[in-house]
């Protein structure tokens, strides 16, 4: 196998260290296994029509030029997100004979493909022309097969994996001392983008209910401010309610892992979720997860590995948080360990390499 070209419309930079961090982690995992991986990605999350057009245009032009120049050295391309990223891989196949793998993360199916029929048709073409389609959750697998007509034998369910050298059990007492968190606090934590679709306002309302029974409870939210108008709504809601809520800017994964380990409950009240990798990372630290019964979370937290609640329902979310605070049975810990073991980096790397070898054999045969 020669070079692997990875395309992504999300990738971290020094200025935006958490933007698409899961893609960077997978790239580094592949490189640690000895693969020659080149990345062509957008590392600027800035919005606005003009900014988006400029950054996508230059990214497409440079990526196509890269494939043209290096086509003889590239074994395959791997696109993260079906559209628009997968369109680059489709061009690579049509014009340069490069087979490709595409990873579907959720938003590219739930939101992007639902925007209009043109994007839906392009998404269908991208997925059907791929040598392999990786989906991060079981529900996405059904969608890709049933809605987009992809042959089941080409679809692989596989998360991005959890780095258990970073996300692992840590002494709650020690890490709270390091983070200056009172030992007696009931710490409830959220990590994710500060947007409505992540259920942030639902969590604030749920926390108000929890606070009535647990006066020592605190809610901490770690995440990027993606929408200025939403943040104004969030700030007004928190100020008006006068509750113990703190928002923190994005931080390195090692610091996030400490906060998760320090928490009593990790909550992910998303309205939709392809997989919910951060929930898996929380499970790896041993912290109980409360999550919406949507998408990949429905599978990740089932069978008692976590606590499933109804999305957009503050009362249901609050009940889940209270259950997590009161139910400390060791049964759940064992189930979390088993779930995490299915998604370790070693497991993911082995499966990904198997897919790559199969796809690249087709390239060698064509040559």
UniProtKB/TrEMBL annotation:
Transferase in keyword set: yes
Residue ranges annotated for the Glycosyl transferase family domain, each copy included: 172-328
Glycosyltransferase subfamily 4-like N-terminal domain ranges (all copies): 51-165
UniProt KW keywords: Glycosyltransferase, Transferase
E.C. number: 2.4.-.-
GO molecular function, one term: glycosyltransferase activity
PANTHER family named among the record's database cross-references: SULFOQUINOVOSYL TRANSFERASE SQD2, TEICHURONIC ACID BIOSYNTHESIS GLYCOSYLTRANSFERASE TUAC-RELATED
Listed name of the protein: Glycosyltransferase
